[in-house]
């Protein structure tokens, strides 16, 4: 596995600035680094595990299973599954991207992928409970019940739009297996 | 914790088929390493953006917020930032206690979660620029609609 320096340029520049900030007592730099470490620690607590789980998913879950439940021939139940998965996704939208990519490569249909992404953004269960404790149950409930239909509708729209314009959902360098 | 869940799952799956499980772990690690630069970049963007669009700034700009202007400001701020939930919601709670419209808060939190300038690099890696832009625009639209409906519910808007 070669170590690709080019990709890390931004990171290297960033850390150089941070080190300089500490040497020269530059408070903006220090405060930015505080933000960085706090968020970094938050992410370390689950991101690697998510990728391992995606790897296991890639290897263990059969394509037929995903196609049957989330693919072209799936029923309305597929929406339910995508919402369940979204509800249990930890972290945030950024972690949903690799998960969505893995699902798509196993044959989930586009609209389900977008439903999952949208729902993973705003309907995660742990976060929702947290939210309700700060802004109230009513606010959270209204938000949920309006967001979910909108997300589903927009995911269908996205699927049709991509079809019409013949855009493939994924075409990236991430390793696929299978 | 998710690590415990993962470990348990690995043990169970390894009992069924060790080689397959090992392969899965290797694939996961490989993906993790491959994604590290882009995730680090995102964390950097978040760190920088949160410094400039800080809690105080948000309180200041949204604090007077109401009406269309409030919604516009909050949705733009929300789109530009990414905050972990446990930072964003206490902030929302403070805003509510200051009397900020629920409409404005809904616009802020929904755009915060669905639309992302900071998530753009990662999303673009996976789905390409075009899809990323479209999805974010749609997310923005959804946020506006949701906020308007919240506004109606809280009788802050009258139609």
Summary tags:
heterodimer; A: 178 residues; mainly alpha; 2 domains; 9 helices; B: 159 residues
Q: What report would you give on this structure?
A:
The complex is a heterodimer of chains A (178) and B (159). Chain A has two domains: 1-46, no CATH class; 61-175, no CATH class. The two termini of chain A are 21 Å apart. Chain A is globular. Chain A is 74% helix and 0% strand. In chain A, α3 (47-60) runs parallel beside α6 (93-105) and α7 runs antiparallel to α9. Chain A is mostly helical and 178 residues long. By secondary structure, chain B is mostly helical. Chain B has two domains: 1-52; 54-159, no CATH class. Chain B is elongated. In chain B, α1 packs antiparallel against α2 (18-52) and α4 packs parallel to α6. In chain B, 84% of the residues lie in helices and 0% in strands. Chain B is built from seven helices and no strands. Chain B has helices at residues 2-16, 18-52, 55-63, 67-80, 85-97, 102-114, 120-153.
What is the domain tally of chain A? 2
Order of helices and strands of chain B: HHHHHHH
Largest sheet entry of chain B: none
End-to-end Cα distance of chain B, whole Å, is 46 Å
The end-to-end distance of chain A, rounded to whole angstroms, is 21 Å
Strand content of chain B: under 5%
Low-confidence stretches of chain A: 173-178
Main sheet attributes: strand count, strand direction, barrel closure of chain A? none
Instruction: State mean pLDDT of chain A (0 to 100 scale).
Output: 85
Percent of sequence in beta strands of chain A: under 5%
Question: How many individual β-strands of chain B?
Answer: 0
Q: What's the topology here?
A:
The complex is a heterodimer of chains A (178) and B (159).
Chain A lengths: L8 H15 L3 H18 L2 H14 L2 H8 L6 H12 L4 H13 L4 H13 L2 H11 L1 H28 L14
Helix pairs in contact in A: 1-2, 3-6, 5-7, 6-7, 7-9, 8-9
Chain B lengths: L1 H15 L1 H35 L2 H9 L3 H14 L4 H13 L4 H13 L5 H34 L6
Task: Write a compact overview of the structure shown.
The complex is a heterodimer of chains A (178) and B (159). With 178 residues, chain A is an all-alpha fold.
């Amino acid at each position: 596995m070669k170590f690709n320096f080019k990709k890390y340029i931004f990171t290297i520049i960033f850390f150089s600035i941070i080190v300089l900030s500490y040497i020269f007592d530059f408070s903006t730099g220090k405060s930015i680094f505080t933000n960085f470490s706090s968020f970094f620690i938050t992410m370390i607590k689950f991101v690697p595990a998510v990728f391992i789980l995606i790897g296991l998913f890639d290897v263990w879950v059969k394509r037929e299973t995903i196609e049957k439940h989330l693919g072209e021939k799936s029923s309305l139940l597929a929406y339910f599954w995508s919402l369940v998965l979204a509800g249990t996704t930890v972290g945030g939208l950024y972690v949903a991207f690799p998960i969505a990519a893995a699902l798509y490569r196993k044959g989930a249909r586009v609209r389900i992928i977008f439903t999952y992404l949208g729902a993973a953004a705003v309907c995660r269960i742990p976060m929702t409970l947290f939210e309700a404790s700060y802004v109230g149950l009513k606010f959270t409930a209204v938000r949920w019940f309006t967001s979910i239909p909108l997300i589903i509708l927009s995911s269908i729209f996205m699927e049709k739009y991509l079809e019409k314009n013949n855009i493939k959902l994924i075409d990236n360098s991430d390793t696929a297996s299978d | 914790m998710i690590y415990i869940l993962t470990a348990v799952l690995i043990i169970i799956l390894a009992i069924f088929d060790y080689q397959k499980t090992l392969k899965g772990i290797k694939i996961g690690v490989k993906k993790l390493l491959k994604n590290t630069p882009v995730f680090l970049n995102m964390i950097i963007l978040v760190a920088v953006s949160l410094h400039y669009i800080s809690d105080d700034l948000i309180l200041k700009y949204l604090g007077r917020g109401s009406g269309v202007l409030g919604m516009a400001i909050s949705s733009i701020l929300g789109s530009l930032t990414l905050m972990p939930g446990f930072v964003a919601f206490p902030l929302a709670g403070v805003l509510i206690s200051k009397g900020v419209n629920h409409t404005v808060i809904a616009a802020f939190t929904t755009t915060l979660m669905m639309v992302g300038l900071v998530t753009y690099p990662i999303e673009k890696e996976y789905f390409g620029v075009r899809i990323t832009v479209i999805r974010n625009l749609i997310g923005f639209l959804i946020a506006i609609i949701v906020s308007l409906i919240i506004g109606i519910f809280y009788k802050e808007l009258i139609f």
